[in-house]
């Protein structure tokens, strides 16, 4: 089989690897579509993502969907040919979560994630023609949800988790700062969960146009004389830029809530945080998701249209070119077609 493999900075190749054989409790999925995430771009650009650095070649990709191709021993309740996506997280080790974190499986101390170099050996991702998958990580696609849209269930789950962290958004005004793919999906998720008005802010026109198509009621082009609004009770910071924190805190209403969904750097970085204290802002982190991927599939089934997010598609053999396009801030979600050429 072919797979998109990161070998080091600037070195992504389409390698040939042995076809997987499903073990006990596993299935083999014939992958059809994969969405490129910022972590995939980071491995391609730098040979690392955050503190996770490549020690060996790594198959990229954790936003994937395809069809079950073979069942391993002990697998029941799933049929060959079933379209599925994959929950890409697997907690490591026997240690249970402390009681205060019950149910928050995204906060296990050690989690293997598809397409991640956090552990040695690394956890290969799903940018391959075939992938052996634990059956309990499968999420069947509802009728009417294509594998192309199913590949967006994982990032939509990240957005839904962020909205869930904010509490009930119905009838409320929301600001989303940063409308790359995750921020744009936060716009869609907030509207889906009943937000009355969503304001989207970003320096890039193409990103704002996508946010509008995903439901933003108002857009602010930052750096073009359009400041952030003031006194917004509920704010999502999705850019991950430390320099944005001061203005975003100032935009948050006194006593309001700021949900940090954009990944901040792991190294020291200057940021103006004084308003966090003087305005008594509640600042919440949002990390990956628990099982909101199931909620994402239900939202897609119920008509949430994420197609405006998709701006480019590439064949698997063009993975390096696809990563370069995905690195351009003017791009939305870039998809790889992982199977046979689409007809």
From TrEMBL:
Keyword flag Flavoprotein: no
Pfam families xref list: ADH_N, ADH_zinc_N
Taxonomic lineage from the root: Bacteria, Bacillati, Actinomycetota, Actinomycetes, Pseudonocardiales
Bias (Basic and acidic residues) ranges: 10-19
Residues covered by the Enoyl reductase (ER) domain: 8-336
InterPro entries xrefs: ADH-like_C, ADH-like_N, ADH_Zn_CS, ER, GroES-like_sf, NAD(P)-bd_dom_sf
Start and end residues of each stretch annotated as Disordered: 1-20
SUPFAM superfamilies: GroES-like (SSF50129), NAD(P)-binding Rossmann-fold domains (SSF51735)
Family membership noted in the UniProt record: Belongs to the zinc-containing alcohol dehydrogenase family.
Keywords of the record: Metal-binding, Oxidoreductase, Zinc
Protein name: L-idonate 5-dehydrogenase
